[in-house]
């Protein structure tokens, strides 16, 4: 069947729409999944509380990520390079590169995360459904990472927190609702 015919019909996702979740560190709002794009990409929004580290150092073996900053400041460690981005900036995180990112400011931040090809959004959904990274036993998290070809270095967290003045885990951003609980 034609890939274009397999895609979902055109639609608008409003600012209060999309499944919401909390990854234990940052929020996630699911906007477009791979089923709607023929597997080409997925799109999520990540609201981040002030000074929140999103994840330990990690690398994706199958996906590129593009973070577009909507509000606030996003810091990122891309290999050995430290960058900071503001509203309107796009940060490219290529597959295979060790990286992490965080809210670099004292106010909430929001980014759009484009994941290409699609599929990794299901990792976020499953992690959120399990209660987030801090609620998942290490063996379960390890199996989930392996299933989605994600390598993670949990031992990097203390050094990242100290180096960049961050918090881990983060908290839901005030005004957002995650899995039925007000943030």
Task: Summarize, please.
By secondary structure, the protein is α+β, with helices and mostly antiparallel strands. The chain has four helices and 13 strands.
Descriptive report:
The protein has one domain (3-182): Jelly Rolls. It has 4 helices and 13 strands. The longest helix has 10 residues, at 138-147. By secondary structure, the chain is α+β, with helices and mostly antiparallel strands. A hairpin with a 2-residue loop joins strand 6 and strand 7. The chain starts with a helix and ends with a strand.
Give the helices and strands, then pairings.
Layout: H1 3-6, E1 20-22, E2 27-32, E3 42-48, E4 57-60, E5 64-71, E6 74-78, E7 81-85, E8 90-93, E9 99-103, E10 109-116, H2 121-129, H3 138-147, E11 150-153, H4 157-164, E12 177-178, E13 181-182
Antiparallel strand pairs: 1-2, 2-3, 3-10, 4-11, 5-8, 5-10, 6-7, 6-9, 12-13
């Amino acid at each position: 069947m034609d890939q274009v015919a397999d895609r979902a019909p055109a639609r608008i996702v409003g600012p209060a729409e999309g499944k919401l979740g909390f990854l234990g560190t940052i929020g996630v709002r699911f906007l477009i999944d791979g089923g709607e794009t023929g597997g080409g990409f997925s799109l999520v929004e990540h609201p981040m509380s002030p000074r929140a580290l999103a994840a330990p150092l990690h690398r994706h073996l199958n996906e590129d990520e593009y973070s577009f900053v909507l509000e606030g400041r996003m810091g990122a460690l891309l290999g050995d390079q430290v960058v900071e981005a503001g509203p309107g900036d796009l940060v490219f995180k290529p597959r295979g590169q060790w990286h992490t990112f965080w809210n670099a400011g004292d106010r909430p931040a929001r980014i759009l995360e484009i994941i290409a090809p699609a599929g990794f959004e299901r990792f976020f959904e499953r992690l959120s459904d399990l209660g987030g990274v801090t609620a998942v036993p290490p063996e379960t998290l390890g199996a989930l990472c392996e299933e989605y070809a994600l390598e993670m270095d949990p031992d990097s967290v203390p050094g990242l927190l100290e180096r960049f003045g961050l918090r881990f885990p983060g908290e839901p951003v005030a005004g957002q609702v995650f899995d039925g609980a007000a943030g």
